[in-house]
């Protein structure tokens, strides 16, 4: 009789090898391993740390990563947040301490949701000088437009649930590197903790990779049009978009990226909680939810979802007010998306007072 389990394992291995080879090629990496989610990828990288080690993180980064570092794995290690104004000097000073315990620097550029941009080359040079591992989450820029490994970063992470899968039906992650020792450690950690990707999600990743470039090009064009529209709208107070010439780190963005995808954050021009909640509800073409990167556009009220991570005062200081929205632009007609945003923005009541804490 046929050993069906063995046959499934063999088929899964062949598909895994194919997908990992494609991702490694796109990221200019030597090695890649797929995982069962983006958070799994992050947790595997964090498990490279020993008990008592410290991880340095940038000022703004993905909320899920923040929860993982601050609330789930904080019993194993400590963490330090880099300064928003000059993270480079601060990192150099921290790593130069006689008893430095920082063993990993975790980055995300552009960051989700505030679009902070970090200079990969400067950070990687500091890390290599002090023999510290550097890792970057490249989910929201994708390997089509950015390759952190080519700028000296040691590890690149992806939530393949987002742009690589591209259709909001896949849950998977990936880790890419040029370092064989790091790769072997991470593959062992993945396998021993059961964080492999299943065959169905590998199939969806394979399908998504076939259209990634053409989807990325369409999303890139749509996002620029929508960001410009939002920037000029009287009912929008501020837009966070890394390709604006007025962005504080636009020169870094141009140096290390050839484009960008569809994540845009913005404050609608009201301080009223109820008004902020009504804005996304009126949209017809944007799905409401926390994910991103699908062919269908989506929106999330980021200010409300992030406030639980900070004190009320710190949340407001960081820009996480109730009126902060984040949209993930899909591949629909840009004019239709703008028309939908317009019908909802036009109904926003401009109410100004201190937001509820």
UniProtKB/TrEMBL annotation:
GO-annotated biological processes: transsulfuration
Keywords, A to Z, come to: Lyase, Pyridoxal phosphate
Provide the species name: Stylonychia lemnae (Ciliate)
Names of the cofactor(s): pyridoxal 5'-phosphate
Gene Ontology MF annotations: carbon-sulfur lyase activity; pyridoxal phosphate binding
Say yes or no: keyword Lyase present.
Answer: yes
User: What GO CC terms are in its UniProt record?
Assistant: cytoplasm
Family the entry assigns: Belongs to the trans-sulfuration enzymes family.
What is the name attached to this protein's record? Cystathionine beta-lyase
InterPro entries per UniProt: Cys/Met-Metab_PyrdxlP-dep_enz (IPR000277), Cys_met_metab_PP (IPR054542), PyrdxlP-dep_Trfase (IPR015424), PyrdxlP-dep_Trfase_major (IPR015421), PyrdxlP-dep_Trfase_small (IPR015422)
Q: Which residues carry this modification: N6-(pyridoxal phosphate)lysine?
A: 162
Tree of life domain: Eukaryota
- State whether keyword Lyase applies: yes
């Amino acid at each position: 009789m046929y050993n069906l389990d063995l046959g499934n394992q063999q088929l899964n291995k062949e598909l895994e090898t194919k997908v990992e080879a494609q991702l490694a090629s796109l990221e200019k990496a030597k090695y890649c391993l797929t995982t069962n989610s983006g958070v799994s990828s992050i947790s595997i990288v964090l498990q490279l740390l020993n008990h008592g080690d410290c991880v340095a993180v940038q000022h703004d980064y993905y909320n899920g990563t923040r929860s993982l570092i601050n609330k789930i794995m904080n019993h194993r290690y400590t963490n330090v947040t880099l300064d928003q104004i000059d993270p480079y000097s601060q990192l150099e000073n921290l790593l130069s301490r006689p008893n430095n315990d920082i063993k990993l620097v975790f980055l995300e550029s552009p960051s989700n949701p505030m679009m902070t941009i970090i200079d990969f080359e400067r950070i990687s040079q500091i890390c290599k000088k002090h023999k510290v591992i550097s890792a970057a989450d490249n989910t929201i820029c994708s390997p089509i437009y950015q390759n952190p490994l080519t700028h000296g970063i040691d590890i690149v992470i992806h939530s393949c649930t987002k742009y690589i899968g591209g259709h909001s039906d896949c849950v998977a992650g990936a880790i890419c590197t040029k370092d064989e020792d790091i790769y072997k450690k991470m593959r062992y950690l993945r396998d021993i903790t059961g964080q492999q990707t299943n065959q169905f999600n590998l199939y969806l990743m394979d399908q998504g990779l076939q259209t990634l470039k053409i989807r990325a090009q369409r999303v890139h064009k749509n996002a620029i049009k929508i960001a410009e529209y939002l920037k000029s709208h009287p009912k929008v107070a501020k837009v966070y978009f890394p390709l604006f010439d007025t962005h504080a780190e636009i020169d870094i963005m141009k140096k290390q990226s050839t484009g960008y995808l569809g994540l845009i954050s913005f404050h609608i021009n009201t301080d009223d909680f109820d008004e902020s909640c009504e804005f996304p509800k009126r949209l017809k073409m944007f799905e409401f939810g926390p994910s991103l990167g699908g062919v269908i556009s989506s929106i999330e009220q980021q200010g409300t979802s992030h406030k639980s991570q900070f004190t009320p005062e710190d949340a407001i200081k960081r820009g996480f007010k109730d009126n902060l929205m984040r949209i993930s632009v899909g591949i629909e007609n840009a004019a239709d998306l703008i028309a939908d945003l317009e019908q909802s923005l036009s109904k926003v009541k401009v109410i100004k007072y201190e937001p509820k804490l």
